[in-house]
Design a protein that fits this description.
Helix content: 40-55%
Radius of gyration: 19 Å
Number of helices: 12
Distance between the termini: 31 Å
Strand order of the largest sheet: 3-2-1-4-5-6-11
Bound molecules: nicotinamide-adenine-dinucleotide, 2'deoxy-thymidine-5'-diphospho-alpha-D-glucose
Shape: globular
Largest sheet: 7 strands, parallel
CATH topology: Rossmann fold
Amino acid sequence: MKNILITGGSGFIGSNFIEYILKITNDVKIINFDNLTYAGNPENLKNIENDARYKFIKGDICDEELVSKIFSENNIDSVINFAAETHVDRSIHDPNIFIKTNVLGTGVLLSNAKRTWGDNFSDKRFLQVSTDEVYGTLPEDDKSIKFTENTPLQPHSPYSASKTGADCVVQSYFDTYKFPTLITRCSNNYGPYQFPEKLIPLIINNALNDKDLPIYGDGKQIRDWLFVEDHCDAIWTVLNKGKIGEVYNVGGDNEIMNIDIVKHILDHLKKPHSLITYVKDRLGHDRRYAIDAAKIKNELEWTPKYKFEDKIKDTIDWYLSNSEWINNVISGEYQNWIDKNYK
Ligand code: NAD
Ligand code: DAU
């Protein structure tokens, strides 16, 4: 039985990951350490919260004392660091919390893992969940160019700069101490439990309520979309089969323009395209992301299972059947509930 410390496990990808892992293996104990910011929601884990293999600890990855206590009291074999501030628009308005959580928080986790594991870390792992945004942007007119693991890091937003900073600190632990680090860099995810500030759930929710759909700039920016369970499976594959000190890109070879996704959602919901409203562009907006996932496919035999056409329909239907979840997160009801139950 391996004890895995999952940070940020109550957010979008972390909660999907915990549910997925507890479904596919019996051989793990999960400790979910999450500060329950606006993006973290215990409701995302209601299906497994009473599972004997699951334990929740509320707290901040920047809190040295608490992180140290967690390491001393729980025989941690692996850390998977999902915890982060994740929304690019928020980072443009308020960068400092991004630098604090994403860079300092990662540093606190690393130093405590290293201190606890001592020199005996050959069977331990520290996996940093990173993003394709660290590479910056790609030309739109040459689709043969994609991000590889060797593409230079050239982030543009405070969010992606903070994730790049974190990646550099993680990599430095391998370069300096041969500490058993792994880094995954994934493209845009979609699926259940994504906070409705991000494009896909925001568009679904606004369309359902006949509200304007804000499209930044000309809407022709390109993202490379992957169903969240495929990302979870890639992380699990890298944790178990990845070579320490390595970076693995994760993506589904699925480049789509924002405006086309929005039209697709409107058509599925039978809502008019007149809801589309072009608004001022995001500052420093990256035009195109595209992942070359050859390394993880060839070396670790990971491949995405799901097709965008199928899973976007399931995702829209999930939000349709879970309108109460959306209303609750938007209204802040969960935040009140968290304040009452965890303080
Ligand atoms: P999210 O915003 O939905 O969830 C983040 C979680 O981290 C929340 O549960 C939040 O409460 C927690 N958290 C934030 N600050 C914390 C702190 N100081 N201490 C403890 N917990 C804290 O994010 P997500 O979309 O699930 O992303 C998870 C990870 O995956 C992030 O590291 C992100 O950079 C990365 N990533 C996301 C995507 C994507 O498309 N969403 C793609 C590639 C990589
Ligand atoms: O690429 C991986 C990244 O994907 C992750 O690292 C981030 O955590 C995650 O938030 C996501 O970042 P993006 O900025 O790509 O996602 P977002 O959903 O915010 O925006 C997707 C695209 O849609 C982007 O080009 C901006 C545009 N957009 C977004 C919103 C919220 C709009 O046009 N209108 C909107 O209202």
